[in-house]
Amino acid sequence: MPAELEKPDQCLLADETSLNESTLNYYRQIPLAVHKLLATCRKDSCFDHVNATPIPSLESVSEILHQARRILFPGYFSPTMLDSVNLEYRLGQATTELFEKLSRQVLLSIQHECMRYNQPCSRCMQLSHETGLRFIETLPGLREILGTDTRAAMDGDPAAKSHDEAIFSYPGLFAITVYRMAHVLHGLAVPLLPRIMTEYAHSMTGIDIHPGAKIGESFFIDHGTGVVIGETTEIGNRVRIYQGVTLGALSLPRDEIDRFRNLKRHPTIEDDVIIYSNASILGNPVIGARSIIGGNVWITEDVPPDTKVLLKVPELVYIGNNKP
Hints:
Helix content: 40-55%
Order of helices and strands: HHHHHHHHEEEEEEEHEEEEEEE
Strand content: 5-15%
Number of domains: 2
Radius of gyration: 27 Å
Structural class: alpha/beta
Strand order of the largest sheet: 1-4-7-10-13
Number of strands: 14
């Protein structure tokens, strides 16, 4: 082969050598950046979790939620087909696995709290198994109330063609399902884990329901994005809300936060209320039974039963197309 034909390969080899050396120079600068990063962790403004304190796993929490949903809605989300012959076996197997996974994450949550406050952790293992079993024992009741939520989706939305459609695809029903599981654990005084659960649903659906809220049966969230339901909210039966609704607290000065932390600071919504999109109900008002709250309203005071609260129709201004 002529020598001149070898030159491109030689040039390519030289370029690769130069490129590798240039790349290595970038890598050599990384330790300095890491050293500076570690230095920031010596300041109070830095948060890390690098010691031996246990902490729940977000990935495991996600697995728990989806496995529990397969149990609560058997056959809908199972990887294999269920029938009347294998149903009890499959449910028994899935429920046992759920108990084991949940007990493990409850244990990590309790241990995290004990070590955080320098408390002895002598009964953590026993308490985690007790809590796991008590949660399993609530599954029949959870199935029943989620049945009312599923029917409420069908009854409240003419676009819903079937209960299957609501179970498979409605973000509101998914968020409510996760909330109801987290609310059980919140009632059992499990730290940290219930909030991780509802924030996972929040990230998936845009619906933020605090596990401490109290919500009755046949609850329906239509569309759902942007819904916020605060910690001390109380919602009755057969309530329907739409996207963007906020059932929140009034903003407080920083020096007042701790004083209100364990007080009721969110609304009470009585039975059969409908709240339309982007309504904000803040503080501790009571919205009376069978009332209708129109879209985009701002409410901080009580509303009597059987009342409609609406904004006046705004004046529209048309400009262009020969209109004044």
